[in-house]
Amino acid sequence: MIEPIPGFSKLTKQEKIQWLSKTYLAGNTEAENILKQYWNPNAQLQQLHEEFTENTLSNYYLPFGLAPNFLINGNRLAIPMAIEESSVIAAASKAAKFWGKHGGFKAEILGTQKIGQVHFMYNGDKEKLENFFHATKAKLIKAVAPLTRNMEKRGGGVINIELRDKTSLLGSYHQLHCTFETKDSMGANFINSCLERFAETFKAEATTYEAFSSSEKDIEIVMSILSNYVPDCLVRAEVSCPVEDLADHGMTGEDFAAKFVRALRIAEAEPFRAVTHNKGIMNGIDAVVLATGNDFRAVEAGIHAYASKDGRYTSLSHADVRNGHFRFWLEIPLALGTVGGLTGLHPLSKIALEILQKPSAEELMKIVAVAGLAQNFAAVRSLITTGIQQGHMKMHLMNILNQLKASPEEKEQLVSHFKSHNVSHSAVEEQLEKLRN
Ligand code: MEV
Predict the structure, then answer these.
(1) Which residue of 245, 300, 361, 436 is surrounded by the most CB atoms within 10 Å?
(2) Please, what is the average pLDDT of the chain?
């Protein structure tokens, strides 16, 4: 059994790699070299990345690409995406091109409120707790004044604090359920700092509240934390066109639209399909969220919770045909920032936001929702026409060629060959062998 290592974080990067190599990689110098190969020769840049987190050994690259030609509310944008999946950027670009010719994407903000909660236990008279809360609410708001001053200058701050009785879920459990407006910042640090100050003040005030008995004075604060479920920080993106514009792969526009809507109904009705359908949406969303230095875990958690908000996991997007007109839309919660966090620190996130013309958080919400809708359109369009593998494998060809260690000349010939042939791992292998013989 491997002994625990004390003080790993205090070791230098070199020492950490040596320990790792000796302990888990059988002294494999190749692995050590690979880790070091990804160090940036610009020492300052390397240090910046190392300081994002703890125990950094190396940098993990993802492709940073661009999907051009997005027409969003009348503005032409190119969307930066950080993603490894071969076909995502091509699919987004294709959908952008198509919808660019059919009125573009429309996006609107439906809300921008974020939520945080102080979770506490109180096992006493409920009416007294209500009275205490009302007597203390103004003090809570006052206690965070030093924290909210700057945010208020930007038009944000604490919107409301509510006392919520959660004892039907768990004995003694109550909450301060707080809503915030954080403008262009994602707001996690702001919200969490306010919540911790609310909690301290609430607990301290309880100890001197005369109407409470001595046990009622002893409120137990369990934790204070923002919620990544933000159903009131919501954006909607939509495309629409006359059905005849959708004629595709030998299908009439009417047939295409009807089959598309049927595919959406299946995703609405059936959770196994809904998860994969929504994964296709997240292909677009995560890629932009990541490229702009936003928290993709928060976004993922919040969006999937929203997909189950009515008690059953379902599709995030919907489509219909009315009076010969096709509509396709989605509504998703998104807590994003364009200032603070990594957005201004990671050089590529900064560039991504510049590419997007320095959007406000609301504008970024619209762009991200559009990227999700475009991706979803492209995926469902492939699924109901050619099947997903044709396009996917074409884009995956380069990965297969790299796996098979094809030379640049071999790659060129095989890319040309597979323009008119179906790509599969075995077909590529076979063709490469033919070429080599
Ligand atoms: C693959 O990354 C995403 C899809 O599976 C999405 C879908 O099935 O709608 C193609």
Answers:
(1) 361
(2) 96
3-state SS class at 50: helix
Portion of the chain with pLDDT greater than 70, in percent: 100
Phi, psi of 60 (to 5 degrees): -110, 110
**What is the reported pTM?**
0.93
Rg for the chain, CA atoms, rounded = 26
Confidence of residue 351 (pLDDT cuts 50, 70, 90): very high
In total, the chain counts a number of residues equal to 437
Q: How many domains does the chain have?
A: 4
Please indicate, yes or no, whether residues 244 and 372 belong to a single structural domain of this protein: yes
Residues with CB under 6 A from ligand 1: 85, 276-277, 279-280, 283, 379-380, 383, 388
- Which pLDDT value is given to residue 349? 97
Cα(379) to centroid(ligand 1), Å = 6
Maximum Cα interatomic distance, the chain, rounded to a whole number of Å: 92
Q: Let me know whether 88 and 144 are in one domain.
A: no
Return the residue whose CA atom lies nearest to atom 6 of ligand 1: 280
CA of 201 to the centre of ligand 1 (A): 49
Among 184, 203, 226, the domain-final residue is: 226
Q: Judge whether 218 counts as a catalytic residue.
A: no
Is 134 a catalytic site residue?
A: no
Do the domain assignments include residue 56? no
CA-closest residue to ligand 1 atom 3: 280
C-alpha span between 186 and 340 (Å, rounded): 8
What is the Å distance from ligand 1's center to 377 Cα?
Answer: 10
pLDDT of 396 > 90? The answer is no
Residue-wise pLDDT tens digits, 245-289: 999 989 999 999 999 999 999 999 999 999 999 999 999 999 999
